[in-house]
Design brief:
- The chain is of the alpha+beta class.
- The chain folds into two domains: 2-88, Winged helix-like DNA-binding domain superfamily/Winged helix DNA-binding domain (Arc Repressor Mutant, subunit A, Orthogonal Bundle), CATH 1.10.10.10; 93-262, GAF domain (Beta-Lactamase), CATH 3.30.450.
- The protein has helices at residues 2-11, 17-27, 38-45, 49-61, 78-88, 93-108, 149-157, 160-168, 175-195, 239-262, and strands at residues 65-67, 74-76, 111-118, 121-128, 142-144, 198-203, 208-214, 226-233.
- The strands form two sheets. Strands 5-4-3-8-7-6 form a six-stranded antiparallel β-sheet.
- A hairpin with a 2-residue loop joins strand 3 and strand 4 (121-128).
- Helix 3 packs across helix 4 and helix 7 packs across helix 9.
Amino acid sequence: MEQQLASAGNEDRQFVSALARGLSVLRCFDRPKIELTTAEIARRTGLSQPTVWRLCYTLIECGFLVRAPGGAGLRIGAPALTLGYAAARGLDAPALALPYMQRLLDQTGGSTTLSVRQGAEMVAVEQLNGDFVVRDQPVGWRAPIDTVSAGLAVLAALPPPAREAAISAIDYRDAARRERHRTRIDDAVAALARDGAVRLGNILDGRYTAVAVPLFETGSEPSVQWALTCGGLAASWTGQDLDMAAAVLVETRALLAPAFAALGG
């Protein structure tokens, strides 16, 4: 985190590093544990202990953090909770994701899609078109879960028993296809663990390539399973383009997944 902040500060004169550090402290509280010590915050942010002490003191004075009763930990304060409520009130998942999808499109030029799992299929519920528009695939298009990067990202993030149950529900035409797609799923599991994102090329007869992330914590099984995809023309998207899209998606997942969980999705 500290290196990312330093890099951003060096590259953008409008970027306020001190504010970003304070926000990184608040972002630590998206975990199930509602109390954190300054040592835990320092470990999670990568910031030094003295820096964390100063940031937490400022956030306490402003009310965004409070000291936990009878303990050494800190909790989110009422103003931060109020901001969260104001942000989420009246928003559904697509409305919450749309500004981040626009950011993906602006930074990569690739088409971005928010999709949700329905049984053995992924269904697109929001879409912004980039440099490649797929004909006859407006919002609402469906695809088998093991044939698109979004579905592979969802399968990869599920705990193994849930993943196996999902795979068993897929209607494979023959054993060879089952084996081929099982290898693809296993590769997706490894990619998500290694890179935080799942890539898939050779889509639409090799014309399209895409990278996707699940919008829930790896190893969990939320009742609604979302994924975010960014992709473009295979002929024009280089490995560097895919790396950039993957990096932005991983960052976006860190921001959106806790919010989606709070919305019940």
